[in-house]
Every structure is written in C-alpha cells, then in structure tokens.
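call fold(seq) -> tokens
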Amino acid sequence: MNASPPSASRTVTAAAADPADSAALPPPRFAFDAVTWKEILNLLLNLPMSILGFVYVVATLSIGAGLSVTVIGLPLLAMGLLGCRMLGTVERARARRLLGVQVDDPRPLRPGNLGFLPWLWVTLKDPVAWRHALYLAIRLPWGIVTFTVTLTSLFVAWPVLPFLSRGMSAVDRALVRGLLQPSDELEQRIAELESDRGVVVDTAAADLRRIERDLHDGAQARLVALAMDLGMAKEKLLEDPAVGAVMVEEAHGEVKIALQELRDLARGIHPAILTDRGLDAALSSVATRCTVPVSVTADLPARPAEAIEGIAYFTVSELLQNVSKHSGASHASVDLWRSSDRLMIQVRDDGRGGADVSAGSGLAGLAERLDSVDGLFVVASPADGPTVVTAELPWRDRDFRRPQR
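ret:
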C-alpha cells in the first residue's frame, strides 16, 4: 500500500503594511475589464432570452393546462415542462460562461421504463421543471430593465456603466442560484445515490464475471478432466486392475484439488467463517495468509448487519493483500471498533509508504465501494512510511427483522 506524500503546509504571517509592500498587492480591477464586458453582454442578452422564455412558458403551459380536460392536454403540459428543463440548461450555461456562476445541474428526470402513465406522472410533478418555468416567467420585466439601462448607459452614462453592470449582474446571479440550481440537499443527495448505484452495479457485474471465469477456467475444467479420467479408469479396471487402481488414485487426488479450488472460490464470495464466527475470527484467518505478521484487534459490542460485515471483511482482505505485495513492511495491524453509528477500520503497516488513491490502483476501487454505502476511505502514506488506511462504514444492527406478512 503506497500514497503520495502530502504536501507540506505553509504558515503565512502578517506584517505591518508599509509602502514597500504595495508592490505585492494584486493590481486593481479596471472598470472595463473582460469580466465587465461579459456582464454587459449578459445584460444585453437578457431581453431576447427573457422574451423567448416568457412566450414559451405562457404558450405551452397555458395551452396544456387549457386542454387538460382532453386526452392531449396533460401530455402537452408534460412536454412543455420538459422544454422548460432544456431552456434552464441553456440559461445555466450562459450564467457559467458570462457571469462565472458555478451552478450544478439538477438531477436528470428518471421516470423508469414503466410505460406512458408513469412517465406522465413523474414529469408533471417534477419540481425542477416548475422552478425553471417560474424563472422563465418572471424574467421578462427584469430583462426589459437590464437591457434598457445597459443600452442607455453605453451611449449616455458610460462612466457609471461598470458599477451598474456589476450590481445588476449580482441580481442575475442570485436568480440563477435560487431557481436554476438544485433546490436543496435532498436533490443533490439523490444525484449522488444514483451515481453510487452505478458503482455498485458495475462492481457486482465485475464480481459475477470473475466468479464465472474462475469456475470455467478452474473447477469446471478440472471436473471435466476428472470425469474423463474416471471413465478411462473404469475401462482399465476390467482389463488391468493394477493400472486401473493407479488411475483411480490419481483421480482421487484431482478431486481433492477441485474441492480446494471450490472452497477458495466460496471464500472469495462469502467465507463461511465470517458467517459463523464474525469479523474477529474471519480477519484473524485472513491475517494468517498475509506474508507479513499481522495483529488483529476487534472491539465490537455486537455484530453489524451482514452487508456491512461483508464489505468490512473484503476491504481489510484487499488491504492486507496490498501489504503483502507492495509495502515491504515487517509488521502490520488491523483494528476495528464501533464509534457511535459508525464501524471504524484502521489498517497500519511500517512499510515504505507512497500509496496513492488517485493513481488508479485497487485503493481507488475500495474508495468507490465504500462511498457507495455512505462510507469514508482515507489514506495517509508519506514517502518513507508508515501507511495508515482508515475506513468508516455506517453501523446497522444485525438483528433487524422484516415485518411478517
């Protein structure tokens, strides 16, 4: 396990200002710099964009609402709301480019593949689209004001134009942040969970492919060969019992190897010792297979939920594999404990250090896997070691039971 050394922090002390220090100050901003011209362009574009948005909202939503008593009314209204979402995307791009507003995109609309009626219902109650429609509807008066003031100032009140543009652009930024970005932490959290769900699905698919490959190339191939050997041994037992007995003995050895491969594969899916005896015993067993001496300490008042227990087990297993392969350590330790509603894991080794999560190694995969279940993954690994990996998982009680039907 190796992570690049953290950069050294610097301490800056403030000294009394004197004329000699003035050269170190940032230069003042010119009245008509590039930022100001972008703000002026944005203010001039407000009127045409506001007219477009206002006409679109009034036309599509009023027609859709007016025809809602007919078959085509609600679908038209839903399509109009989807158009509001697209216009909102254009306005966010304009704000980023001309106003420098760092505004996130809202979560995409995901009605699922359940048919027309679920799509219609999800679209009609989409809060993002309704906020965008409100933004487009109320922008027209403001667009008229900003366009008129900016255009007039260009020819009549040129010296005050930079100050007017900055003030009006501040209002534009507030409108964009208030109505065009995700409204609250819930929407942002949903977007994060959707991304995490993709990570979980990809990880599960990769695990299934690995299991299939191991079965096909390992135990399955060995069992096919074993069946052929037993068929030949059966024929030899009638012709030459001594040779047949030797072949049966060889087949018996192949059976033992196949059984061991199946046990190893099962341990990679979910080890029996983890199910029967918990993390302490299971991780102690993993530690014995590490090429570096490992001490395991588990201070857990109870066993966590099976899913959390499994993630903790495989996280420590992979970290100890990294210790064996990359650390050059003489000793390692594994500590587990519960802190409030979190399961804490810390793996430490006295090796060469230099582990880097951002280098696309297995550590990055572990970080993604823990993030998908609201966990944390922190690596501290200076160039000369030691390496300390701390992981957190949400604690969920094991004795949860679903209500009986």
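Strands lie at 294-299, 332-339, 342-349, 376-380, 387-394.
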